Amino acid sequence: MIEFKEILVPIDFSETSRKAIEPAYSLAKLIKGKVYLMHVIDMLPKPNPLYAHYSPRESVMKDEIDRIEIESRTKLLELVPKADDFKGVETEIIVTKHSTVHESIIEEAQRIGADVIIMAHKGWSTLGHLLLGSTAEMVIRHAKCPVMIFRVKEK
Fold first, then answer.
1. For residue 27, which of 11, 5, 12 has the smallest C-alpha distance?
2. What is the tens place of the pLDDT at every residue in 28-85?
3. What is the rounded distance in angstroms from the CA atom of residue 36 to the CA atom of residue 109?
4. Taking Cα atoms as reference points, which of 147, 93, 81, 149 lies closest to residue 120?
5. Burial zone of 125 (CB within 10 Å; 0-12 exposed, 13-18 middle, 19+ buried)
6. Residue 139 burial by Cβ neighbours in a 10 Å radius (0-12, 13-18, 19+)
7. pTM for this model (two decimals)
8. For the domain that residue 113 is a member of, what is the CATH number?
9. Least confident piece of the model among 5-19, 64-78, 133-147
10. How many domains would you assign to the chain?
11. I need a labelling partner for 135 at 20 to 30 A (CA). Which of 4, 11, 12, 20 fits?
12. Given this model, what pLDDT does residue 81 score?
């Protein structure tokens, strides 16, 4: 029997991604699991100094990234459900930095030994999503553990 004790929930702070929080905590409460709320700071690849538009701003960028990391941790903590229904559910906050969001989610799932990744997804609405794929689709394709997707209908 599969037990979903370690539950990873990637959050990008959109309304859609937040829809995965309650189902994750409901499952964790039911099976006495642990929820990992995760945010990935999307890092662009470093600019090439051979290009004309290059300007070295490493220290400014590091300060900004540090600020974003602190803010992300605070925002994730605010998303932990306060309802009595979810009291006692253990939560860990994870903030990573990566140039490819889906790869970071998959790597983190392997690092923590996630039994399941729970995500919300609003479905494909443009041709671009069909051609390029979404983060959720890439996680489904490459994750080593099961992935639960909660489809959120657009208003």
1. 5
2. 999 999 999 999 998 866 555 555 555 555 555 788 889 999 999 999 999 999 999 8
3. 9
4. 149
5. exposed
6. buried
7. 0.85
8. 3.40.50.620
9. 133-147
10. 1
11. 4
12. 96
